[in-house]
Sequence to fold (225 residues):
Amino acid sequence: DAKTTQPNSMESNEEEPVHLPCNHSTISGTDYIHWYRQLPSQGPEYVIHGLTSNVNNRMASLAIAEDRKSSTLILHRATLRDAAVYYCILRALYGNKLVFGAGTILRVKS
Amino acid sequence: DTGVSQDPRHKITKRGQNVTFRCDPISEHNRLYWYRQTLGQGPEFLTYFQNEAQLEKSRLLSDRFSAERPKGSFSTLEIQRTEQGDSAMYLCASSLAYRDLREQYFGPGTRLTVT
Fold:
């Protein structure tokens, strides 16, 4: 399974944008980039995924580098409810399991 | 609420006892996954089912662990002769098995404490 590297923790102010980076230099051409987050005392929650193009949904945006060796999850306006562990995961085209790393702990200050 | 449900939410057991957890996936989802998460770590894959067939098992799933999904709906995870190292959160997830619709939806987990 291809590996991802994320900062251990980040801090943001409420109402400001947050950019969560992820490096995945060994990504293969058919690996999808997935982001999940885990709020305290809950199971992980799907956030967004992409292959090559940038993606937007109601929760976040995903910016993928042209060489696909890195990506950034963007929360446009952080709220206290966004405080969670964010996981960047590479999933093979026909892969089934998710391989989680340690993720990035996002703290949001009011 | 039609999300993934797990029962029980918490289980405390003594070393050597057997425990069984249940997972009810989202009703139209044909894939069901089990993961284990210890404190401060991300979830680790244990096994997954497509309908009633168990298609992949992790090396983490020792012979004390067994999972079933008898009618392709709910699933059970049994741990026999529990050890203190089994203390963890056990997470269940479900998904649809289509190429671009494979987001996994997780339940709240069962927290196991082995004393």
About this structure: The mean pLDDT of chain B is 93.
